[in-house]
Design brief:
The chain is built from ten helices and nine strands. The chain is 47% helix and 16% strand. α1 runs parallel beside α2, α1 packs across α8 and α4 packs parallel to α6. It has one domain: NAD(P)-binding Rossmann-like Domain (Rossmann fold, 3-Layer(aba) Sandwich). By secondary structure, the chain is an alpha/beta fold. It is globular, with a radius of gyration of 18 Å.
């Protein structure tokens, strides 16, 4: 089926909306006639983004919720959807940490936090809305993975695992819910300006601003693209690495290895 532009969504939910790509997405969707549901942990930063969106004419509902809290998130999403039926949900919230020295593992706490936020947080965001969208026969689900989902990187194995999980969850979900009229888009970005990217110590190839990344995502979602991968060249490189024999892929990854700061 050809991917083509659809009418702009009137009700949009964005998680991780207080900073980085989430904040940029909230701002780019804010407009008169649009209702936004913005979710993030940091109440003060979220309030500032919400104020910006209201200044652009949007009606904004905000909630300081950690996406790891499935019950609180589901309760809020149900109440919000009762008020304004959700057209588009963007499960964007994410964290990244990494080893601080060669051959030092992340540790259970850091690894679990990334899996719980990046993967389970997406599931906690999407699952409460899916039955409602299917019942209405329309809706769009978008989830933020990473091009790191294509090939494991040695400095943050749990992050890569979490984003690979998001990619496969979305790819599996898409044909399941399509007959119910629900579209699913998996977003796989490379480097864009954010606190998370700032923690990477070394080359950040083809990095773009969060605003530019949000524009790319918005254009892809408007066209109902099933995968939104950018920059394409970097995504293709990591996909190619995954096709190589494992020993060769490992050798190339070690040679291009970058460092990650203690906390992103």
């Amino acid at each position: 089926m050809t991917e083509s532009a659809r009418p702009a969504p009137r009700t949009v939910v964005v998680t991780g909306a207080s900073a980085g790509l989430g904040a940029a997405l909230a701002r780019i969707y804010a407009a008169p006639g649009v209702t936004l549901g913005l979710i993030a942990r940091d109440r003060e930063r979220l309030a500032r983004i919400a104020a910006d969106c209201r200044a652009s004419g949007a009606v904004v509902h905000e909630a300081a919720i950690d996406v790891r809290d499935a019950r609180a998130l589901a309760t809020w999403l149900a109440a919000f959807d009762d008020t304004a039926a959700v057209d588009l949900v963007i499960a964007n919230a994410g964290v990244a940490t990494g080893p601080c020295s060669d051959a030092e593992p992340e540790g259970d706490e850091a690894a679990s936090r990334q899996i719980e936020t990046n993967l389970l947080g997406v599931i906690h965001t999407v699952e409460p809305l899916l039955p409602r969208m299917i019942a209405r026969g329309r809706g769009h689900v978008a989830m933020l993975g990473s091009i790191a989902a294509y090939r494991g990187l040695p400095d943050h194995p749990a992050y890569c695992a979490s984003k690979a999980g998001v990619r496969l969850y979305g790819e599996s979900l898409r044909p399941l819910v399509a007959p119910g009229g629900v579209a699913v888009s998996v977003i796989l970005p490379g480097f864009f300006e954010s606190a998370m990217s700032a923690a990477f110590q070394g080359p950040r190839p083809l990095m773009i601003s969060a605003e530019r990344a949000a524009a790319i995502v918005r254009r892809g979602l408007d066209r109902r693209r099933r995968r939104i991968v950018f920059p394409r060249r970097l995504g293709l490189v990591l996909q190619a690495l995954d096709l190589l024999p494992a020993f060769l892929g490992d050798w190339l990854i070690r040679r291009s290895r970058f460092r990650i700061g203690p906390r992103a």
